[in-house]
Amino acid sequence: MARQRDADLRLKGFGLRTRFLITMTASLAVVMALGGFLLYGAATRIAETIQTNTISRAVRMLADPPEWKRDERPATEHRTTGVQVFPVRYGVPPADGSVYRYRGVHPDTSEDVEVRLLVPESEKVGKDLLGTIAAIVASIILVGAVVSWWVANQISRPILHIIEDVRQIAKGDLNHKTRAHGAGGEVELLARSIDRMTRELDGAQEAQVELSIRERELDLASGVREALLPLATPVLEGYDLGAAQLGSEDFGGDFHEFVELEDGRVGLLVCDVSGQGVPAALIGATARAYLASELGRGDGLTEAFSRVNRRLVQDVRRGMFVTALYVLIDSRRHRASVACAGHKVPLLRYCAADKKMRLCHPEGIALGFDKGPVFDRRLQVEEIELAPGDRLILANSAPLRIQNEQEQELGEKAFYSRVWKRSALDTQKFLKALKSDLKQYAGDMGLPQDISLVTIAREGPA
Predict the structure, then answer these.
(1) What is the mean pLDDT of residues 163-189?
(2) 154 and 286, same structural domain?
């Protein structure tokens, strides 16, 4: 494609310099040939006239020779004929002339003979030739001016069109096309270059608009992302609670939240939102508000999720959904109620007693898929007991999709393994080590989307 664009900007046919050279050379050749012919004819005619007049006068003076005397100018001799030429002055008033003298032997009588011929000075040819030359030069100048005007018009007219085209483009009309096509040479090349420039400017303008939209989306999503973060981490006696979020360039609406109930229980929530960009961020903000409000009332988990689902179905378009994993901690009973609304990553439970990792994944479908009956029927709640040293880990699906430089996804088993290796650490060290592992695996590839991690551990010896 690039080669085709470059070929469009190559000079086709003769350039202006070549065309101007050919046109002017051909025109001047014709004019000079015509001028030479006219000059030759005029010079020949003038020479014949002068020759006839001079010979006629010389013959006439043979009948009545005038008195003459030699001039002081030196004589000359014709090399081929041996005729001597003497400059003389003759007549009254005196006039310049020449005496042609030949001495030789008569071929019939063998007697010495001498022949003299007085020839008047030849007429000046300057005026006649000057007029002829002036007329020819004037003709050459006139023809050259006409040819130059024609060539200049051939060049200036398309250039004036291009100037007007550039003015139109400068006003912002990037769809305007130049009108100099067919002019040939550099002018047409210039026109094609301007057309290509306008196409690239149009593309750059569209890219700039898209970039501006993208920047505004990033600003909006960044604001929504900040709004989705919990204001504070609750303090729960006997438990070590913490959370972390790793931001990605491909923002979405995934979030985590803490829900504090009036009776002292604390809820841990992690959600995945389908899609990317501003729409996903807005859906995430809406779902967070609904979930925080309904779960904060302290009613049963199935009733709270059912109400959120019915409200969210009305707000999201078809195909959009939110998955949720919610764990409600009762620190007095050391028990946790777990509800899952279509969340891909189960609740990870590290049991300190046997140092094994167990999964808790109650049944349920995502919020926003169904208006109510199917969602209510499928949603289940499980309860688990928390022994001293046990740890619960909630995460969205982003860690599973992290790719290394070989484009291999981390996947479930590798993620669970990394969580298990560090579960015995205190919460802050656990989160710091897990984030470092995830970033190291991604390397320069970056994170596919925002990562949400929430964890809680019961304090005390195993």
Answers:
(1) 68
(2) no
